[in-house]
Structure formats: C-alpha cells, structure tokens
Design goal:
Chain lengths: 302, 176
Amino acid sequence: MVAIPSRHKSLTLLAAMIIAQLLLLAVQIKRDQQVRLIRVWAVDLVSPVQRLSSWMIDDLGNVWGGYIGLRHARQDNQALRAELDRLKIRNAELEGRALEADRLSTLLNFRNSHTEVPMLAARVIGASPDSTSQVMFINRGSRDGVRRDMGVITPDGVVGKIIAVYADTSQVLLVGDKESGVGALLATSRTQGPVKGTGEPRLSLEYISNDEKVTVGEQVLTSGQDRIFPKDLPVGTVVEAVPEPKTPFMRIRVTPAAHLDRLEEVLVLLSRQEFTPKKEIDASTAPVIAPPATGQTPARPQ
Amino acid sequence: MENSDVYVGPEPHIEVYKYYGGVVPAAVILALLLQAFFPIYFHWAGYLELPLLVTLYFALSKRNPSSGLMLGMAVGLLQDSLSRTPLGLYGIAKTMVGFTASSIGARIDVEHPISRFLLTIAFYLFHHAIFAVTSHFLLAQHGEAYFKMPLLIAALVNAVIATGLFPLLDRFRRPS
C-alpha cells in the first residue's frame, strides 16, 4: 500500500487559510482616504496591467502610425523636393524674364524716343568660339532686313557692326575686337579720331595729337565719319590720356559705354539716320511688348 | 516491512496523541478567558500568551499540519475577536505557528521538558515576528525594533509557564 503524506495538502490548506485571513484583514483595514485595504490591493493589482496595456497600445499605435506616417512622409518629402526644384527653376526663369523685361523695356523706351531712326531689336544668341576675336551672333538676318555694315547699338552706346548676314542670323563684330574701328570724336573738343579695338576690355582712341587737351572722364561719341553709325552716339569714356614721347599722338584708353560682356538684346540700325536729341519717353506710357520666347522673333511695337 | 511496500509518513516511533472529546475546545476557551481576565488583576499577566501556548501544545501533540494550522487559525481568530486587532492578525500568526509546530512535532521529540522549553521560546518569538510583519505591511504600523528586552522576558516567562502547563494538559490524553 502506498500512503502519500498529506504534506502538499497541508501546504495548500495553509496557503488557503493565510490568504483567506489576509483577505479578511484587507476588508477590515482602511488605509489613507479611508479606502479599504482590499480595494487598495485590487487597484494595485489591476493598475500595473492597465498601465502596461495602455503603454503597449500607445506605443504600438505610435510605431504603427509612425511607420505609416514615415512611409507617406518619405513620399511626400520626395514629391515636395521635386516640386521645390521645379519651383526653383521656375523662379530663376521668372527672374530672368523679369530682368529681360527690364532690358527690353529700356530698349523699347530708347527706340520709342528715337522713332525717326529705324531700328530692329535683336537677341544675342551666340558668341565666337575663338577667344582672340570678339564677335557675336544675333537672331536677325537678311529676312529681317539686316544688311552688312549696319551698326549695332544698345541704349548705353555703340556695340559693333554687322559683318556677315545669313537668312535668320547675323554676325556682329564688337568694337573691342582688334579688327574693329569706329569713327569717333571727343565730346568736349570735338577732336575726331578713330576708336579701335585692342582685344582687351578697353578701346583705343587713335591719332589724337599730343597737343590736344584730353581729360580723363571725357565722353567719346561717334563722329558719323565711318558711314556706319550716326553721329553723337556714345562710344565710351576716356580713362587714360597720356602723351606718347615716341609718337606725336597721345595714348588714350577708352572704356566702352556699352557693356560688351553682358549683351543680351541689341538694336540694329537699319539706316544711318542721325539721332535727334529727344527726352526719353516715360516707361509707364510706352507700349509694353512681351519679351520674345527663346528662338522666336520679338513682337514689333505697333 | 517489504521493499515493495512504501510507507511515507510520520516516523513509526512518533506517536500521535488523541484527547478526550471537548478537551481541545475547552482548553482554548479557558486560555482565552484567562488571557482576558488575568491582566486586569495582575499586571505581569500581560506577558502571558496562553492562547499561543495552547495552540503550540496541541499542534506539537497532534503532529498533523492540517489540524495544527486549523487549530491555530481558530484560536487566532477568536483572540482577534476578543481584542481590538483586526480579524486575522493573530489568526495568521497562530496559523503559521500551528502548521510549523505540527510539522516539527512529527520529526523531533517534543515530550522532553527542555525541548518544550526551548520550543516555546522559539515559537513565541516566531509568533511575534509574524505578528510584527503582518502589522507592518498591512496596518502600516512601523513599530520599534523587534528584539527588545521585554519581548525576551516574555518569551522566557511563557516558556516557564509552558513547562508546567504542558504536563497538565498531558493528563487529558486519551490512552491509545
């Protein structure tokens, strides 16, 4: 016969009796706020589980939402970056157009103030690949009435002359080129002399006698003697005037009036008619012409 | 005893005593009454723990953990009901004493007066330790240091009382 002792039964009974008496005490004892101990135990037992559940649910929710949000945020981020890039390009384009509009407005204003002189607006479309020559290409050609040896100017001053004409384009020799020459005169003394290009940014006023009084800052204008440019168009400003001991002529350096390194729109003089001095027409009253699109002929004012 | 027979239980040489009907309840009630009565007239009676001694005696004698813990719980709850302590405070302590004493009683000789004396001291301290822990954690009563002289004196006093009480209670054993 196998008789198993009642040790496990007695331990179980002990635990049950102890627990029962603990519960009995918990029902009787009141803790702070007059809350029975058994309620305190019940709350203490449940609240950690509640906190843990809440934490898990919140964290899982945040992780899930964060994952989805991050996924979408990544796509949104990429889309926003692409749109930002596009807008940057568009902004740059608009800024360029605004600057172009300003330039064209100046051109238009100049042309409207000299309506007696037929002029054709043109856009610079290229430069010479050869660094030793200063030539550029414009988007006007024979079909637009451009002919060889027509003068090219900006409202600031003389730019150059047409040296080659094609159907829709023309080549312009800038005044800074070594092969270039413009008939000019000093604005104050009216002393005439050719202005030649040096291949450098500055021009050279030739054949002015050492005896002449030339001051730095004196304006140099076209003389009209070259039969290309009309008279009294700005050529440049004297920046150096030094008598040459070895020659009878002065060494005179002239800064071009036109910004030859920043040409974008120019005017082609269709005739050698002289400019009569007139006040600039107010830009607000001048007819506004939309800037031409790239490759298109600019609209002519009515 | 053959090898195929496995007897797991109390050692054969340890006897389990039985008592005449009513002795246990009468002893318990008498102990409680005297515990409530004596301190009124005798100040030193405050050191007595007669319910504990009764619980200890019968638990050691019966050597049955289940009956020992039940007896201790009953005595403790009765003591709680007669005092201002919450029900279960003495109950838990005496439940543990009853269980432990019954378990020990099944293994060692508890008839010798010296063993009874020492066991009484040990269980008195054990009883009050359980009571202090329970009070501390449930009643939030942060009492003084447990080991103090009055407690040790009380333990000795009860041990001396037990050396006279236990043989008296032995007379009420039913012959086997």
